Amino acid sequence: MKLQHIEIQNVRNLTRIILKPSEKVNIIYGNNASGKTSFLEALHLLSYGKSFRTRHLSKIVATGAEQLIINGKLSSSDKSDIPIGIAYQNKCFKIRVAGQTLKKTSELAQYLPLTVIHQDSYRLLTDGPRFRKQFLDRGVFHVEQTFLSIWNRYRRALKQRNSSLQNRQTLKMVAIWNSELSETAKQLHYLRHQYIEDFLPVFQVHSTRLLGIDETLCIKYHAGWPVEQDYCEMLEEGFERDKAVAYTRKGPHRADLDFRVKGVPVHEYFSRGQQKLLVSALMVAQADIYRQRKGSSGLLLIDDLDAELDNKHVSIFLEMINEIEAQVFVTTTDKGLLGDHKINDSKLFHVEHGSIEEVL
Questions:
Q1: Please, which pLDDT band fits residue 352 given cuts at 50, 70 and 90?
Q2: Which domains does the chain have, with CATH numbers?
Q3: Whole-model pTM?
Q4: Which tens digits make up the pLDDT trace of 212-265?
Q5: What is the 3-state secondary structure of the chain?
């Protein structure tokens, strides 16, 4: 899918924006606090129905406005146009795609796959497993149609089992949920494991190119429980300890990715700039895997590309995004970011006081 047209109303300081972006690379430049990141945030809202900056959508609505509206037009593989739009007002979220009303934001994400690299993306390496699990599951979700339904089944059964543990119920009553948990846990592990197997060689190419290091970068996937042990048996054996803490201690909900160089966690080994390059390689690889598996590309958003990076690595990154088939949106404070780089089918936009205009 390509985004042919975008209209944004009342997203932070962007009161009304209408753009026709390039299907390849779009450079959005302007001073800090001019609205560059808010523009990327609007695209993220249109894809996932949520922001990458806050959990509270009410904080995104422009001051004095009653609602925010984002409308777009997508071009599909058969060249037909697909209208897509969202509206948020008074905690009410409305989604329309191709004239139909959607009930779940997960349905929205299937139409406009999107990957974003922003100032907090390094938390994927430094913070808890939640961020890494989100990264992994987002990748699997976009290439495996069955993933979401299996994950929802697992979450429902997990919620019920945890509720039973909290209510101090007997092993027999808690065990009702073990079978469903076991079945879906195995399926989730299989999908995640297969995705990582496909992902690692693609990531290795991008990370080597961006980081240019000789050290071996190791990524290990942890399923959340010892997969050599039958999950249902493990739940039964761990019942008393689970009951003591009132939650299910092991399972796919505890999955994680471990990033190390020479046995050392990458956030302790790499500088902040190297961490940004590593996260960028992860995101670009994820977009590349989607292209390989689906035959079409999604959106890649990069906020402040040149922040914390030297000219050499900015140049390498620009070469990479010119080669991949994603539709790219890059923000920067540097109008001359492209320099002498010849990027086919690129557009330049200037942001000032919440207004965005194409620079011809």
A1: very high
A2: 1-113+298-360 (3.40.50.300), 122-295 (1.20.1050.90)
A3: 0.90
A4: 876 678 999 999 999 999 999 999 999 999 999 999 999 999 999 999 998 899
A5: CEEEEEEEEEECCEEEEEECCCCCEEEEECCCCCCHHHHHHHHHHHHHCCCCCCCCHHHCECCCCCCEEEEEEEECCCCCEEEEEEEEECCEEEEEECCEEECCHHHHHCCCCEEEECCCCCHHHHCCHHHHHHHHHHHHHHHCCCHHHHHHHHHHHHHHHHHHHHCCCCHHHHHHHHHHHHHHHHHHHHHHHHHHHHHHHHHHHHHHHHHCCCCCEEEEEECCCCCCCCHHHHHHHCHHHHHHHCCCCCCHHHCEEEEEECCEEHHHHCCHHHHHHHHHHHHHHHHHHHHHHHCCCCEEEECCCCCCCCHHHHHHHHHHHHHCCCEEEEEECCCCCCCCCCCCCEEEEEEECCEEEEEC
